[in-house]
Amino acid sequence: MPSSLPATAPQLAETAAALAQWRSTRPRSTRIPEELWSQATELAERHGLAKVAVALKLDYKSLKRRLSVRHCADDARSAPVSSSFVELNLGLPLAPAVCVLVLTDRAGRALRIELPQATGSEVAEVARTLWQVEPCSP
Questions:
Q1: What is the pLDDT of residues 55-74, one digit of tens each?
Q2: Which class for 12: exposed (0-12), middle (13-18), buried (19 or more C-beta within 10 A)?
Q3: pLDDT tens, 37-57?
Q4: Per-residue CA distances from 28 to 18, 34, 61, 66 (Å)
Q5: For 91, left (φ over 0), alpha (ψ -120 to 50), or beta?
Q6: Which of 3, 115, 132, 134 could form an S-S bond across to 99 if both were Cys, CB 3.0 to 4.6 Å?
Q7: What's this model's pTM, rounded to 2 decimal places?
């Protein structure tokens, strides 16, 4: 067991041996299995990130990244669901809806009508009524 390993950490020694055995049977560019990474992150939580990275001959930044991802996942799972806030969606818009109707004729004259909270049928009725009116003579 290397001198950087705590004497009271048999799991750290076991994981170091498992990693050494795995490394001896795989090409250098092969990714470390998730099971070994999981063991390493558990050990890093208990014994410290730097000690475990050195003892297991792992990249410090990779182990740190995996440890922070693990903490985020644990936090998300353990976050209590709060019943103190309940959102009620009453289907009301945040601001009153305004419908703008712009009618133009061939001469370029325009009529702009703003209808607060108008429905589609109301807009159609206004337009139909205006189009049925005889045009004024210029």
A1: 899 999 999 998 888 777 66
A2: buried
A3: 999 999 988 888 899 999 899
A4: 16, 16, 18, 20
A5: left
A6: 115
A7: 0.48
Q: Is the pLDDT of residue 79 over 60?
A: no
Report the amino acid identity of residue 113: I
Left, alpha or beta for 13 (phi > 0: left; psi -120 to 50: alpha)? alpha
**Residue 76's CB: how many other CB atoms inside 10 A?**
8
Q: How confident is the model at residue 8 (pLDDT cuts 50, 70, 90)?
A: low
The answer to whether 53 and 41 are in contact (CB under 8 A) is no
CA dihedral sign, ordered 27, 29, 33, 37: positive
- Written as one letter, the residue type at 86 is V
What's at 83, amino acid-wise?
A: S
> Cβ atoms within 10 A of the Cβ of 55, count?
25
